[in-house]
Amino acid sequence: AVPGIRGLTPYQPGKPIGELEREFGLERIVKLASNENPLGASPKALEMVRQILGGTHLYPDGSGFELKAALAEKLAVEPAQIVLGNGSNDVLDLVARVFLAPGLNAVYSEHAFAVYPIATQTVGAAGKAAPAHDGSRGPRFGHDLEAMLERVDAHTRVVFVANPNNPTGTLLGRSELHAFLAALPERVIAVVDEAYFEYAHAPDHPNALEWLGEFPKLIVTRTFSKAYGLAGLRVGYAVSGAEIADLLNRARQPFNVNALALAAAAAALGDVEFLEATVRVNDAGLARLEAGFRTRNFDYIPSAGNFVSFDLARPGAPVYEALLREGVIVRPVGNYGLPNHLRVSVGTAEEIDVFFAALDRVLGR
Ligand code: PMP
Question: Do the bridges between strand 218-223 and strand 341-345 make them parallel or antiparallel, or are there none, so unpaired?
């Protein structure tokens, strides 16, 4: 293997429901492990998938013309500024392949999304994790942008910022993120990963797309996996200046987004009602989770996403295992440097109640 591969920790996906069914023969399984949409997907997107099924012998549109046109209109950018990916992970990987190489490095924060080191080290570049906030100057576990800037050196070509971040749910405000982007050396590509953007409504929640004109090296990534409920179809995208998008598109696999995903995503974009319902359910679910953690005296990290990480004050892995046997799948986050936390995705009110009941049983409360 090329250098760097053996040092990688493989991405640990949420345990699939089917696996748990086989393992424990459980009837009801609640999966709150992968920040998926508890409402499913937009009915309009599903209808489109049914229509497209008859054409699966044909290659998808390799340029993603219609989806890019729909996105361009919605986001007020040009189609030439958009790069489609097989999930936004694919786009993050493209960024690494296009801008990183042995001898170069990428900077990200401790407890940041696991794909940044994977994408970086896969191309033989070095990943530099800056320490997260300790709570004295910013939200505990959140990105410390000053510490990240300090890690940027002559060999840094990419910085990855997740806003909000997974698994911490921490959010960077407009002025601090803007100042960080402005302070980066000109040669550095800044990736602002907005996978959870659609859930945003804090007044200070930045929309990094607004800064594309100002920062030519800015790449904003988003996804249809979360609020749009299309995680299983795999579609995400990057928006940047047209020059950077052109470079990414050169390295992109010709048909990286499948036909079902392209059509479903375009339809999902038009279903404003579904998105609004999603955000409503998420707000209510976040409040329900946070109230449950407060009642039980667990420290949790206030989240701007569709998940909450909470501190068990003891190792999370055994509690995760015990919850599996109760038919509840959450996410251990030890591989994110948070061994005493578990991350639970927002579900319906009923799913959240099932989660807390299982947690209470497991902890003997
Ligand atoms: N970025 C962040 C911060 C995420 O949490 C995720 C999903 N876990 C992704 C990117 C990638 O999602 P997808 O590839 O499904 O678009």
Answer: unpaired
